[in-house]
Write a structure and sequence with these properties.
This protein has helices spanning 3-20, 34-41, 67-77, 117-132, 144-152, 158-166, 171-181, 189-196, 213-227, 234-244, 250-263, 268-283, 330-337, 351-358; strands at 24-25, 31-33, 51-54, 58-62, 82-91, 103-112, 138-143, 247-249, 292-294, 308-313, 324-328, 344-349. With 361 residues, the chain is an alpha+beta fold.
């Protein structure tokens, strides 16, 4: 049987399993409006998506994943609660590593339900684990919501907290901002010179770019305001760093996070959410005592997730990407729901990688 046919057949088997679990099969278009994806991810998405356009529909992208179109579909006319499954191709540009696939199959399972988010998290994870059990994969988990809660609770300006929250998914930039806001590193020389100039808008420099004078003046005022903001307290920075350093089995990670929450009460509710999730996972037969938790997990590749995140990896196969990934994306439903929202969590499996590990490819 040709390779693609084998992958489609394996994908159909996995999707059938999700249907038996209560999911409704859905399909989405291969071409997705670029405007929506650019609004969500910014211009960074162009670096990993195939972009095209036509006169009537404007700029579009070959489907980089299923979550956004499935969320749009649900927010437009989905009932509650809802469970969906899908199977199809996604497309990702690979400009640096020609060995990685730029087109591959995904099979997914998504849950939209208000009643018990911890139970929904456990449901998705346990189903993925059941499908992948014969492969003896390593599972990793995290929780973006705990870090977001920690940043939101910092004693600083909303502008600085907003900047840190925007860059949670860019660890290097997040660290640079944290160091600057805490006074560990100096302000860039060009910015310092701009702020030191009494009236920057009175210079004879030509107006270049698309920003108006009013927008430029507002930006300069914001930079000056930021320069006058007191640095973050060393204790708060130390707590953020302690949080980012948590990497243990789930029960021990929970105890560590509880200790941090004593001095950082802003994360208390998020830590209770983790506790509820651990109990829900255990009730579904997941071996939580040996399940890994990493507070920083998901920060480089899961831009729209804002809570529980997970991935399954093949031990000893660093050459392979995750076999499955997923997580919670409540905020995405708010963005695409235009005033409506619903807690949502989901995950995807790559059947081609499953076959490769099974020795079929």
């Amino acid at each position: 049987m040709p390779t693609k046919a084998m992958i489609r057949a394996r994908a159909a088997e996995i999707q059938a399993f999700f249907e038996e679990a209560g999911a409704t099969p859905v399909e989405t278009s291969l071409l997705q409006p670029a405007e929506v994806l650019l609004d969500l991810y910014g211009e960074d998405i162009r670096g990993r998506a195939y972009v095209t356009s036509d006169t009537l529909r404007g700029e579009q992208m070959l489907r980089p994943d299923f979550t956004v179109p499935v969320v749009q579909m649900h927010m437009d006319h989905g009932a509650e609660p809802a469970r969906y499954t899908y199977s199809g191709q996604v497309f990702r540009r690979q400009d640096e590593d020609p060995s990685r696939d730029n087109e591959y199959m995904q099979v997914g399972y998504e849950v939209f339900e208000r009643e018990n988010p911890a139970s929904s998290d456990a449901e998705v994870f346990a189903l993925m684990q059941t499908v992948l059990a014969p492969l003896d994969l390593r599972a990793a988990t995290g929780d973006i919501g705990i870090l977001k809660a920690a940043v939101a609770g910092l004693e600083t300006t909303e502008r600085r907290k907003g900047a840190l929250l925007r860059h949670i998914w860019r660890p290097r930039r997040f660290r640079q901002l944290l160091d600057r806001f805490s006074g560990r590193t100096e302000m860039p020389a060009t910015r310092a010179a701009l702020i030191a100039t009494p009236n920057p808008m009175d210079t004879d420099f030509p107006m270049i770019g698309l920003r108006s004078e009013q927008e430029i003046a507002a930006r300069i005022a914001a930079l000056k305001e930021d320069a006058e903001t007191p640095p973050l307290a060393a204790g708060q920075v130390a707590l953020i760093e302690a949080l980012l350093g948590v990497r243990e089995k789930l029960p021990f990670a929970l105890e560590h996070l509880r200790d941090i929450a004593v001095d950082m009460p802003a994360i208390t509710e998020a830590v209770f959410t983790l506790k509820d999730r651990i109990e829900a996972l255990a009730s579904r037969g997941v071996d939580v005592d040996n399940l890994e938790f990493e507070a920083s997990y998901g920060r480089t590749s899961m831009e729209y997730y804002d809570g529980f995140v997970f991935g399954f990896y093949a031990p000893g196969r660093a050459d392979l990407p995750p076999i499955a990934t997923g997580g919670r994306y409540d905020a995405l439903t708010r963005v695409l729901g235009q005033g409506r929202e619903i807690p949502a969590v989901g995950g995807v499996i790559r059947p081609g990688l499953v076959l490769k590990l099974e020795g079929a490819l």
